[in-house]
Amino acid sequence: MMTDEKKGIGTDVLEQQAVRQLTSRNVVEISGLSFRYLGRDEVAIQADNFKLKEGESVLIVGKSGEGKSTFVNCINGVIPHISGGELKGEVRVYDKLVKDTPMSKLCVDTGTLLQDPESQVLNYLVEEEVAFGPENLALPPDEIRDRVTEAIAETGIYNIRDRETYVLSGGELQRVALAAVLAMKPSLLILDEPTSNIDPAATQKIFELLRGLRGRKTMLVIEHKVERMLPYVDRIMLIEKGRISLDIPKQDLVNHIEELNEAGVEIPPTYFYAKQLGLDNVDVTYIRQKIREKGIVLAVPERRKAERTLMQVDARVSVMSKIKGQNTEKVLLDASLNLGEGEVLAMMGQNGAGKSTFLEAIMGYLDKTSVNFKVRLVVDGEDLSKTSIQTRGKYITFVPQTFELTIVTNKVESEVAYSLKQHGVKDYKSKVEELLEMYSLTEVRGKDPLALSMGQERRVAMASALGSGAKIIMLDEPTSGQDFYHKGMLGKEIRKLQTLGYSFIIVTHDSRFVYNYADRMVVLSQGHKVLEGTPEEVFLESEKYSIPPPTDYYLRV
Amino acid sequence: MNWIVADAISSFIILVGIGLPIFILLKAIGITGFKYVTRYEKYDSFLYRMNPATKLLLVVLATVVASTTIWWVATSVSLTFLGLFLTLKEGRRKFLLGLYILLMTVSGIAWTDATSFGPFFLHRIQHVVVVWVWPASFASLGFRVPLTLQALVFGLEASMIYMPTVLAGLLLIMTTTPSGILRSLKKIGLPDELNFAIVVTMRIIPKIFDSVNITIHSQFMRGLGSRGSKILWPVYVILAAVMSVMPVLIHLLKEAKDTAIAADTRAFRAFPHRTYMTPMVFTKLDYTAFLIVAIVIAAISVGVLLGLGRFTGYLILLA
Predict the structure, then answer these.
(1) Which of A84, A207, A497, B101 is 20 to 30 A distant from B68 in Cα terms?
(2) What is the dihedral of CA A504, A510, A513, A515, to 10 degrees?
(3) Are A191 and A75 members of one domain?
(4) Smallest Cβ distance to B247: which of A127, A393, A405?
(5) Beta-bridge partners for A197
(6) Would you call B271 and A112 a contact, using CB atoms and an 8 Å cutoff?
(7) Are residues A287 and A314 in the same domain?
(8) What is the mean pLDDT of residues A486-497?
């Protein structure tokens, strides 16, 4: 028998994982769970009884802030080992009581992939990142290398294994993060909104990986993209106001669509029609055929046609780089865009296609020390090409994806008043009242915006942006990480502002949102505009650019 | 001299003294420039191949040299390190940025020291060359003692204390992955928790610059400075940067929670020791560096014994 010293500390980990494989039982068992965060009155999660069998995959759905992440954090040990609070009841993972087992033992069985790849990738090189966990487990170097090689092969990131992590796209980074988790060889995988921050093509790759893992790993997946996740799960669980209000086999979904829809969960439209028509098949082609046979005409979202062009942009952005010793110009963006008055224009494309660069070019944010650019910008007949950010800000406002970074004061009302004061608007107080009212912020006017819920925070950022008096609003990925309910709220807000004369450019990966709320859309690919037209026209060809049309569209063509 | 002219010249001197480093900071370097020189990029030249522990030793050596030797030694070391920027990936651009950082630091520190600390040493000097006598109206701003050539020279020399460490530190950051630094720090006995904090900080430095950039742009877009004169633009940039502290901090703290979860759910601190996929090895290059370090330390020791320690030579010459 080897001595402890010869085995190395990490050998215990190998033994723990070997023992785990020999047992067949419930992976997770929860009874009488209740957790309340420190300083909060309400219980964040309550679960009387929950069991998860070896090899099962469960999709967890529900609105943001209703307790989904808290639930999985009680299983992976983040609660109570990292986040403190009042914890009651029992959570067992592979028979180990989570609250009494250190993270070092829990993480050998349970791997956790979070929403934002940027904040969970800790190292500069891909291989280093994947090796981080096994190195922490103090495994022998050969074992670490084997695990890294295996995880890299499994997640299909062999071609980027020696790259710097900060040059990777969001999708690549998320696969690196998944490889880093898989290198720990966990049997239970917890995925907390793993595709929220990545484009459709990258999302598809993550889902394909999950398909490969299904059955081999036990999985708990929090995901808003119900339609795309359904093929890879066995059960669906709804968490509402901190409680498990529904836990059903996937096959029963069609019998519970109203409950889920009322709870703000995005239900594939095919399920609605299947139920209405009494069909037991939810295949989109089949449903479409039945709808036609029955002579049902589905309403198409209204597309408004702008009467005049409000904004014209021609932008060319490039960087010089050295390839084989030669200075070569790499074009990041070379495209033109027209925005009609009162129009909602959606901009889609893969990560790195040039969408954010386009918005930055319009706002005058580009830095001439890092890129070469030439931008022609005309708004309402006025040439703003050579004007400052401040001047452009009178006509155009921009809410970035990280909108909380735009909030610079400690009171909601002063934040909303910021633009008005800076522009010297004399009767700014009445305008502030109007904006607070419009965004239902009157009750929280005295509060610190950064202490509000994410939904309220976003409304503060929007109200504040509108304070500049600009009539063109640019939103960068406003649907990212949003649940179905909040996306619906955002869509209605955009429609309402449209009737008040505002025009929008919205960068998004959500084709269903575009189909429902955009008048026109453009698709960018490698810095060039490749498609332009109404959603109906563009979705005919968008799959060529890795943008899958939404089911709503398929049902109507 | 007419008091209006004297006031105007005094104001101009102060504006240049304070404005030059700010101008270099905002115009020549910028947030993008700082981001560029504070992150690792993969490349193959001798500094990238050198063991992180050796490079860390070089940073320590640079600090020791700068703090113990006469100004021109520190200047020579600074220029040597600056020259090494040319061996990096996109070396010319990094060399220029390094030069701007050097000019910004030297001009900022030289001005501050010449007008604040320099006068305190002047009583030891027999003959001083007065460059400018501040009008009485500037006394309330702290400009009482005349600006002398000796004070300016003193300021320039004092500024050289910092440059070798700054430039060597940047070379270390640009050529070593944070985990490489972590391993070398571990070798010298620093605890994992502290090392991890350093590594995560290095990882988020570019992110901090990005976040500050977003917040500053957003304030300008919302009208900051729209009614002010263009000449006040640097003031607005600084104001916007100050205003960005809180949102950026809160944004980073939110991300830090995810970072903590990502680390702890991957067994960080699970065991007293970590193992490594690739062992840390010292090559011929490292041993050459060690030899150079030993020679430099010996030379410094001899130099200091001969009276070439920091400022002593200068003061001796003046006396």
Answers:
(1) B101
(2) 90
(3) yes
(4) A405
(5) none
(6) no
(7) no
(8) 91
